[in-house]
Amino acid sequence: MNIMTEAATEELLEKKMNAVPLKMVGKDVSVYYGDKRALYDVNLNVRENTVTALIGPSGCGKSTFLRTLNRMNDTIDGCRVTGSITLDGDDVYDPSIDVVELRARVGMVFQKPNPFPKTIYENVAYGPRIHGLAKSKADLDLVVEHSLQKAGLWNEVKDRLQEGGTGLSGGQQQRLCIARAVAVSPEVILMDEPCSALDPIATAKVEELIHELRANFTIVIVTHSMQQAARVSQRTAMFHLGNLVEENDTDKMFTNPDDQRTQDYIMGRFG
Amino acid sequence: MTPTHIVSIYDEELKYLTRRISEMGGTAEQMVGDSVRALVNTDMALAQKVISEDVILDTAERQINEKAIVTIAKRQPMAADLREIMGAIRIAADLERVGDLGKNTAKRVIAVQGSSIPRNLARGLEHLAELALMQLKEVLDVYASRNIEKAKEIRERDDEIDAIYTSLFRELLTYMMEDPRNITPCTHLLFCAKNIERIGDHATNIAETIFYMATGSQPEGERPKDDHTTSVGAIEE
């Protein structure tokens, strides 16, 4: 009989996990808002076709870290980033990098669904059009259809593509935003609390979607819901006071975390 | 010490489980001790008391399970909390089984009452019960103290009980061979010995559960076993 010891199993899992290529690598990442330091030398890798969840109490730096991945912090006055972040080995903070191009490769979905005040069709078609991803109207139609299908929204909206995107329900709007992010064929999708404004059913649909999207995209999600992190991710990173406290397999993280601070946070205890 | 929960009633819910498990442990211990005393002294009244007490453990187990399920649904426990609740469910099941085994021993008191149990055989049973009870008592102490080293010790000590059980098994066989009239009482005693041996196993289970609750991993290595009764006939042939 082939009985593996726990240590051997863990080693095998570790090997399997290490075999997954790294999509993005954050090295000694620090972020300052003016004089205030928000992140302290964070070293965190994002693995390809993996859902990585970032958790931690409010103000811990998880959203700040997420925003460094596609340089969303650039738009904030006085924000300074040190250390390095690479996407497939290329430094995303390199001066030669085109930020618009970067954000097409690393898309983002926000906490509150924010469709453009345009038709459903235009919401999805906008990105591919400005990035020149469709050669003809027929091409564009196809991209819109596929994106809406990937976002699990096609059947609900296919007969009213010319209606306003803001007229959809909250959950549909959020999936429309996901379709919009998917439309430009990004490699990485960042999600900043994508379900916090949604009801449980819409949340479940988005979670199901995240599960499906993983096959084609790398996903990083910030969430306040521990249960959501446990449900949707394979890797979880815990932030506290601007530090990365622990990064681990999600299964391990929520049953037997290594760090006491993670333990206290996920169990809802006073730290 | 781990800090308390932000939602203080959550702490109360967990404490409820711990308290009920301890109570179950106390009752189970009492029942096992009484059942063996009833057997050795052919004390029918005491046996009847043990039989009637079994319902206490059945009820307690049900209540612990209900509370545990409601707590999981309400609090969605994580990490050590989740292990604590799952552990409580498992330990409650083990203790409920211990109660059943005590009750079964008590029931057999009635069957063996007419026959006289040889003194040294009774002493063997008493010794077996002492060891099993000690395991049970210590494992309940460990449940309160969460002393991992102690939990491991208990787990490693189960082979003593197995060894005594094996020797009792052999001894009972010789009595049966000596005089066929011994077969009925000796068979009952054999079941009693088996019951007591099983109680030791449940104590070991509980020790493993506590180890998992405290550390999040299973104790390493096979638990030692010295129960050779499955091959007793084969050896003598």
UniProtKB/TrEMBL annotation, chain A:
Protein family membership: Belongs to the ABC transporter superfamily.
Superkingdom of source: Bacteria
Domain ABC transporter span(s) in chain numbering: 24-266
GO cellular component: membrane
SUPFAM superfamilies per the UniProt record, alphabetical: P-loop containing nucleoside triphosphate hydrolases
An individual GO BP term: phosphate ion transmembrane transport
Keyword tags: ATP-binding, Nucleotide-binding, Phosphate transport, Transport
Species this protein is from: Mycoplana azooxidifex
Stored Gene3D superfamilies: P-loop containing nucleotide triphosphate hydrolases
Matches recorded under PROSITE patterns: ABC_TRANSPORTER_1, ABC_TRANSPORTER_2
Listed GO MF terms: ATP binding; ATP hydrolysis activity; phosphate transmembrane transporter activity
Keyword Zinc-finger: no
Name of the protein: Phosphate transport system ATP-binding protein
From TrEMBL, chain B:
Subcellular location, record wording: Cytoplasm
InterPro entries found in the cross-reference section: PhoU, PhoU-like_sf, PhoU_dom
Ranges of compositional bias, category Basic and acidic residues: 220-229
BP GO terms, sorted: intracellular phosphate ion homeostasis; negative regulation of phosphate metabolic process; phosphate ion transport
UniProt entry keywords in alphabetical sequence: Cytoplasm, Phosphate transport, Transport
Record keyword Cytoplasm present: yes
Superkingdom of the organism of origin: Bacteria
GO cellular component term, pick one: cytoplasm
Region (Disordered): 216-237
Residue ranges occupied by any PhoU domain in the UniProt entry: 21-109, 125-209
Gene3D superfamilies, sorted: Phosphate transport system protein phou homolog 2, domain 2 (1.20.58.220)
Family note: Belongs to the PhoU family.
PANTHER family reported in the protein's UniProt record: PHOSPHATE-SPECIFIC TRANSPORT SYSTEM ACCESSORY PROTEIN PHOU (PTHR42930)
Quaternary organization: Homodimer.
Main function: Plays a role in the regulation of phosphate uptake.
Stated name of the protein: Phosphate-specific transport system accessory protein PhoU
